[in-house]
Design a protein that fits this description.
Immunoglobulin-like; 10 strands; 2 domains; about 550 residues; five-stranded antiparallel β-sheet
Length: about 550
């Protein structure tokens, strides 16, 4: 009982966060399917692939063989997958697929609410303001868009940890530089979630640091801590970074899904945000543009700085910025300028938390204790009700626009629409023109063109086994699987030599051996080095954190005695 009394506020806050996390997935559970956003098939199949590998005892899926048309797509080395593990684990534990995936979202919402509250409270030392900021951020319009409309799961996951990285950046350059681990591990989880979000976040930090360089004090110590953060970030992210770099250095790949840069009309952006629809920011976030100016004098230095940064990002993300001039430059990897809404959202949420607090402080001066409680409840109702209305509208729209067989329901098996699988993104550049043939199971057996049916391509963890008369009886084979580094071929129980064809596919010639052929990805020394380095870094960090917490706890108890 003493523990409950001592930690009453923490327990109540955690219960509140659990309720919020469940509220976030309630529209999914009500309608019985996961949102059919732009990239839903792509990411759902990633989860299915990982869950299948886990069931077969493989926890490092690199070559995707159960999904993505069974072409041995090496997506695991190009697209971060670690943060999908909770989804895959839940999918294997819970029979209802919709509930499993929804709970994966709830898990990350709960984590992000806690992390955002924690770092906000470190800055503002005000629990109500921190609670408002975390709720406004997690239930913002753009987080909603990433989950319910775009189903951009990688970016959604990076948004869950962006507040940690932002606080870490603030601490290193303007606060307590000894808290550099926030920057290191905040950026690490973003890297382990989404490459483009990593690029945008790093670019944002670099620009802010350059612009505000004059106001950075104690620079030597701060840049030393920055170095620590960068090295630790690389070490903790090596499980993805090392295999990714290894493949990129092995051969050429085209830019994934190039798209001409074009910002949204600023007026349309404001209207869509106020209406809570489209690729926008939501009403709470966009109203910061107005109320931030009205209440400017009430804002502190951090909130004022956040308002300026958020407003600049808002302008840049729109048609007011000449995006066309950045086409065919390094910046066009962003694909869509609206991705910068992530920057607007995090900084405007900081301002919004303060705005709500200021309004509440003015209100409570004219009311009693009951009125203060009612005022707090009303603030959260406003924030959540606006969000919930938009979420329900998205689900109703998707229910009418997508037939049942195109929705991720409890009966969903695997996604097959080529347009939604983006198979060309990480196909070797030399073999892109041959992709249609690979997807179709094209094989050249003893110089004769043929095809292998899907039933004769057996999926195994990080491997494809080709069987059937066409394969078994041939001595030379050009197989429908691409050349990547760390690919090995086995036939007759032995490893055999292989070469890449003019289409960059795997070819073998084994006059003395016939039978089924297995093409397998085997992690290299570099891969294992990255895996072990990341695991050891995270374990060492967790052990040190727990030890440090216990040490501080004992110190506090001794002082009380």
């Amino acid at each position: 009982m003493n523990y409950i009394k001592q930690h009453k506020s923490t327990i109540l806050r955690e219960l509140f966060f659990i309720l919020l996390a469940l509220l976030f997935i309630l529209p999914m559970l009500i309608h019985g399917f996961i949102p059919c956003g732009d990239d839903w098939g792509y990411h759902i199949d990633r989860i299915i692939e990982i869950s299948n590998n886990m069931r077969h005892g493989n926890f490092f899926p690199m070559m995707y063989t159960y999904t993505f048309r069974k072409i041995g797509y090496l997506l695991g080395t190009f697209y971060p997958w670690i943060t999908l593990l909770p989804f895959a684990i839940l999918k294997n534990l819970i029979s209802n697929q919709v509930v499993a995936i929804a709970l994966g979202f709830a898990f990350y919402i709960f984590i992000s609410l806690n992390l955002t509250f924690h770092v906000s409270n470190k800055v503002f030392k005000n629990k109500l303001q921190s609670l408002l900021t975390s709720t406004i951020y997690v239930f913002s319009g753009y987080v909603l868009v990433d989950c319910y409309q775009r189903m951009a799961l990688g970016e959604f996951l990076s948004l869950m940890f962006l507040p940690v990285a932002v606080y870490g950046f603030y601490a290193v350059f303007f606060g307590n530089e000894k808290e550099w681990p926030y920057l290191a591990f905040g950026m690490s989880v973003i890297i382990l979630s989404h490459v483009l979000s990593t690029f945008i976040t790093s670019l944002m930090f670099a620009i802010i640091a350059i612009v505000l360089f004059h106001w950075i004090n104690n620079r030597k110590q701060r840049f030393i801590r920055l170095g620590f953060a960068i090295l630790t970030c690389i070490a903790s992210s090596a499980i993805f970074l090392f295999p990714f770099a290894e493949q990129e250095l092995y051969q050429s790949f085209g830019q994934p899904s190039p798209n001409p840069l074009q910002g949204t009309n600023f007026g349309d952006l404001v209207i869509s945000s106020l209406n809570g629809n489209g690729y926008a920011l939501g009403p709470i976030i966009i109203l910061v543009l107005l109320f931030g100016l009205i209440l400017w004098k009430e804002l502190g230095l951090v909130e004022k700085s956040s308002y300026v940064i958020g407003t600049i990002a808002l302008i840049i993300s729109s048609s007011l910025f000449p995006w066309s001039s950045l086409n065919k430059t390094v910046f066009d990897v962003i694909q869509f300028p609206f991705r910068l809404y992530m920057v607007v959202t995090i900084f405007y949420a900081i301002v919004a938390g303060k705005i709500f607090l200021v309004l509440f402080d003015k209100f409570k001066q004219h009311t009693d204790k009951f009125g203060k409680i009612a005022g707090k409840v009303l603030m959260f109702i406003v924030i959540l009700l606006l969000w919930f209305g938009s979420a329900i509208n998205y689900m109703v729209s998707e229910e009418s626009n997508y037939p049942e067989n195109m929705r991720y329901t409890d009966h969903y098996k695997v996604y097959s629409d080529l347009d939604g699988l983006w198979l060309s993104q990480y196909t070797p550049q030399d073999g892109e023109n041959y992709l249609g043939n690979v997807i179709g199971g094209a094989v050249i057996a003893d110089d004769v063109n043929d095809t292998i049916s899907s039933k004769n391509i057996v999926s195994e963890p990080n491997a494809l086994k080709f069987t059937g008369k066409t394969v078994d009886n041939a001595t030379s084979l050009d197989l429908p699987v691409y050349n990547y580094k760390n690919i090995y071929v086995f036939r007759g129980g032995k490893q055999v030599e292989w070469t890449s064809s003019s289409n960059d596919t795997v070819t073998i010639n084994t006059p003395d051996v016939k039978g089924p052929v297995t093409v397998k990805y085997i992690p290299s020394f570099i891969d294992w080095l990255g895996i072990m380095l990341s695991i050891e870094t995270w374990i060492a960090t967790i052990v040190f954190y727990v030890w440090n917490r216990k040490k501080k706890g004992k110190s506090v108890n001794n002082e009380r005695r």
